[in-house]
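Supplementary Text 2. Reproducibility record for the structural model of the 317-residue chain.

All settings were left at their defaults, and a single model was retained for analysis rather than an ensemble. We include the record here because the model underlies the residue-level annotations in Supplementary Table 4.
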Amino acid sequence: MLLLAVAAPALWLVYNAAVYGNPMEFANGPYSAKAIEQKTAVIGMPPHPGTNDPSIAFKYFFKSAQLNLGEHGWQFFWVTALLMGTGTVLLFQRKLWPLLLLWTPVPFYMLSIAYSGVPLFVPVWWPFSRYNVRYGIEMLPAFAVFTAVAVYGFVRFAATSRTRLAIVTVVSVLALASYVEVLRATPVSLQEGVINSRTRVALETELAATIEKLPTNSTFLMYLGDHVGALQQAGIPLSRVINEGNHRPWKRPADPAGLWEKALRHPAAYADFVIAFDSDVVASTIEKRELQTIEIIRVSGQPEATIYRTLKSNQAR
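Retained model, structure tokens:
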């Protein structure tokens, strides 16, 4: 069992070393959480809450777990049940100590927020937004299991069967009421998805509608990291799209012979159309002398998207 547990992270490190030349590419590479945060940081603004402060990081993560469980006073009920169940296991049920592993997400995310550039925002604390609140869902098994342990402890020491029934009934009613309250308010992780994707979906929908009007079986050059949903909506298979995935990552520091880089230097030779978004790698490095603008799409809160037709007369001979 120990070998199985060690095999997955070991193979992941080997893969990163073989492909990227850096076993810790996922932690400190250009697509790591820390690198993404540095790229999107706003000059003059403080870092995300919990940066280099594990105690604040803990508070934000644990608050996200509470918000995923209930609204307002219901959070106190679930936290109390969690702590009582945990205390019961620690003090009286040594055989159940393996259940304490359900607390593992706490140190993992606490350290990730503090030292790995992973932001987590909750709507009730600064910056009063919703970002990565879904991480708190990973504490749901702990809340469920330790609540059950706490209830079992009360039932076990109840004097009469009527008291036991009353305990189970009260807890069941409270759990049901908590679910109803969450559904009425909309689960916070669903709120995050809806709010943060609203303008993105609008842009991708408009872009997809434009792409669908282009000739059938057209080929494209596009950076997929931000708006691949547009291609999905338009029904364009990725086999017809030259993208950053065509870069061979083991070729460092550059891969001039790779398909991605060659298409950026000479798009007319490789694609029928190019889709670029403000400031993405296509917009900043593409050879625009081989392009003709056919459509510009603007959606508030999203980067401007430009669709180009490649000028085939400029193909290499």
